[in-house]
Amino acid sequence: MVLVFAHRGAESIAPENTEAAFKTALEHGARAIELDVQLTKDDVPVVVHDYKLKRYNKDAKLAVNQYTFDELQKIDVGSYFDKQFAGAKIPSLENILQFIPEDIIINIEIKNSPVAHKGIEPKVAALAAQHHNLDNIIVSSFDHTALLKISKCNPDIKLGFLMHYPMINAGRYVSMTGLNAVSVHPFKKITDAAFIEECHKYGLKVYPYTVKNQKEKDRLIKLGADGVFTSLETLY
Ligand code: G3P
Ligand code: CA
């Protein structure tokens, strides 16, 4: 069965990575959700993609890790998208995990750019185990050392290897880590049949990111991809 992840929630119809985005994705029938995590100044894992917040609110001049969680809660990250979402907040990871049903697959992406959020891995590992069925969690990152740290915290947590650039023997590389890797998440433009076949040879699923229309999804599934991340709620 093809697995379709609602990228940052239903990001085309609600402000990305907010409670509204995840609830809207579920209402549209999403069975899998993707979200991004970073740490605040006071070390709270929060769900937000950009390191600097000005895209969400031009008055928010600082980066995520320069605000405490309480300070972040005062920033409106909904109005920029549409005034009907005025007052939307950057949620904590705990808050989101508490309301997403346990049968929904959640891909938690640990952001690493442009800074590594030191100490984020044990917090993510603990929250995932506390609030969701670990069978339905995949932790991913472009920073593969973050995945190693997750594995050290809890070797049962399933891992997804994000790849933005072409890589020779990607499946072999991932399998050689000896970690609990279940999937490779390549940028859609580096995904071809040979890449997918090589990953499959090592028992890894392939979920390319981020498709924006039916044609892109169809191309990747025809090549053999096991699912996709998508910004479009009609593709769930
Ligand atoms: O996890 C897939 C995708 O979300 C990675 O890129 O920049 O959208 O977080 P980005
Ligand atoms: Ca992401």
From TrEMBL:
Residues 2-236 form the GP-PDE domain. Pfam families: GDPD. GO terms for biological process: lipid metabolic process. Transmembrane segments: none annotated. InterPro entries: GP_PDE_dom, PLC-like_Pdiesterase_TIM-brl. GO terms for molecular function: phosphoric diester hydrolase activity. Gene3D superfamilies: Phosphatidylinositol (PI) phosphodiesterase. This is Glycerophosphoryl diester phosphodiesterase. It comes from Jeotgalicoccus saudimassiliensis.
